[in-house]
Amino acid sequence: MRLLLHNIQYATGRLRRFAWLETLMRTTSHFPNITRFVSHMDPDIVGLVEVDAGSYRAHRKNQAHELAKTLRCYHRTRIKYPKDGFGRRVPVLNKQANAVLSRAEILRYSFHDFESGFKSLAIEVEFENMTFFLVHLALGIRARHRQLLELHDLIKNCDKPVIAAGDFNTLSGVWEMHMFLRATGLKSANIRHSPTFPSWAPCRELDFICHDPAIKPLRFKIPRVRLSDHLPLMFDFELP
Fold first, then answer.
1. Cβ partners under 8 Å of residue 186, min gap 6
2. Per-residue pLDDT tens for 90-127?
3. What's the pTM value of the predicted model, to 2 decimals?
4. Distance of alpha carbon 63 from alpha carbon 51, whole angstroms
């Protein structure tokens, strides 16, 4: 199977440093580039971070739904902020989501809200032979570490091999993941710790694919495409 993980920056395609205000611009001209790239990679599972679920930027269209139609696959999408959170009450923010797309049938899914952090969503998707988690962790280190503790508990409750992936925002360094990996028993697919951010001059490893030891890694790659401020991650693997 092939997993593709990508923080697509709401498909804005804005790569200039400190140009975050430009992420409020429309995305329709750049989203086809992302669609072509994902289609070319031919993934079985796609974890998308920073998806526009229907704001004015995307002409009120859900980017995950549009991509799922192109790939002819299932998808589960939700706004990354809790239902009673501040982010749900602010225009544009209330359409900022994460999504899981899959060719395989989804047997069960859950949306978990961490108790800490402004963005607090973990998407859990169960397949026949594995469980997949997609996260986008907090920017604050204390909130982020509390979220890792909660993610650890979710993983430990699974009775199938697990892959946990996403933008972990390890801004203080990859050391933040060491205790989490040790406690869960998961392995990082990026064994060389290659950086993923920013895409124009990668120097930080913020994006991770962590897999159960029972899952056999076949190939890991970071495609050098500048479609967002994060580089994508590709992971080929075999299930037990």
1. 155, 162, 164, 180, 210, 211, 212, 213
2. 988 899 999 999 999 999 999 999 999 999 999 999 99
3. 0.94
4. 6
What is the distance between the alpha carbons of residues 48 and 65, in angstroms, rounded to a whole number? 12
Residue range 172-198, pLDDT digits in tens = 998 999 999 999 999 999 999 999 999
* Residue matched to tokens 């800490």: 116
- Boundaries of domain holding 105: 2-238
CATH number of the domain to which 210 belongs: 3.60.10.10
Q: What residues form DSSP beta bridges with 233?
A: 5
- Residue 33: in which H helix or E strand, if any? helix 31-41
Query: Which residues, at least 6 apart from 32, have a Cβ–Cβ distance to it below 8 Å?
Result: none
Positions of the chain with pLDDT under 70: 15-26
Q: How far is the C-alpha of 167 from the C-alpha of 98, rounded, in Å?
A: 11
Cβ–Cβ < 8 Å for 4, 220: no
Round to whole Å and give the CA distance between 173 and 22: 27
Domain count, the chain: 1
